[in-house]
Amino acid sequence: MNREQLASYQPLHVFDEAIFENIVDDLVTTGFSIQKHGLPDFITQALLTCQRSISDAEYKKAGIGRAENYQTAEKVRGDEICWITGSSEEGALWLSWCEAMQQYINRSLFMGLFSFESHFACYEPGKFYKRHVDAFKGQGNRVLSLVAYLNDSWQETDGGELVLYFDENDQIGTKVLPEKGTFVVFLSEAFPHEVLPALRTRHSVAGWFRVNGSVNDSIDPPR
Ligand SMILES: O=C(O)CCC(=O)C(=O)O
Ligand SMILES: [Fe+2]
Where is the Fe2OG dioxygenase domain (predicted)? Predict the structure, then answer.
């Protein structure tokens, strides 16, 4: 390593893998994992620092696919999003923690996860995300969804809960309060879910682990 390389050298973080092991166990038994206040504190802090540094102008209305216009999209989802690029130290720490999770899951379950993408999302009061799945069988390459929450002392009366349904016939589901430090991981194709209308501003991170979609030598970029 020359002096320049040495100056920019970032040691690989070593993360506590106990939480990854819990996730893997849950994925094997149910296909989803709800980790109430399970985010390591330094990851929560990094995400909060990162999120607070984003200006309103950097948040963009989320779409639901190229074909839809925003009017249609508004009826489905009302959040505003900002992709996490890893350009700040805190953003990079988040991405490296998710990469460590990806490697752990691949080693344990041979899922062949290839890349990860994530964005901050903000739901202003009254905004929601109607019931949907994050990936359709045989289409796209998102296989594992991750949602993490950043809100202090969220109450049931604040609305904005994630409702995770166990299959397409489930109408009851299980509710998750979007409280700071709580995160959820689930198989993207298998679990319909929705965000109930939030009654106060709701901050979260949504991310997806993807498999490599390369076919016939056409290279699939990570995003
Ligand atoms: O914020 C949540 O609880 C879920 C968000 C979601 O389903 C998505 O962005 O696809
Ligand atoms: Fe979703």
Answer: 109-211
121 alpha carbon – ligand 1 mean position (Å): 8
Q: Give dist(CA 42, CA 86) in Å, integer.
A: 16
- The SS3 assignment for 144 reads strand
- Comparing CA positions, the residue from 180, 207, 189 lying closest to residue 120 is 207
Please give the backbone phi and psi of residue 70, each rounded to the nearest 5 degrees, phi first: -65, -30
ipTM > 0.95, yes or no: yes
Token pair listed for 68: 């839809």
Helices (H) and strands (E) in the chain, counts: 5, 11
Pocket of ligand 1 (CB under 6 A): 121, 129, 134, 147, 162, 193, 195, 204, 206
Cβ distance 191 to 31 under 8 Å?
Answer: yes
Q: Are 120 and 180 contacting, i.e. CB atoms less than 8 angstroms apart?
A: no
User: Within 13 Å, how many C-alpha atoms sit on residue 130's CB side?
Assistant: 8
Ligand 1 atom at minimal distance to the Cα of residue 206: 9
Q: Which domains does the chain have, with CATH numbers?
A: 16-211 (2.60.120.620)
Which atom of ligand 1 is nearest to 176's Cα? 3
Q: Are 93 and 50 in contact (CB under 8 A)?
A: no
Confidence (pLDDT) at 96: 96
List the chain residues with pLDDT less than 50: 216-217
| Cα–ligand 1 centroid distance for 82 (angstroms) | 13
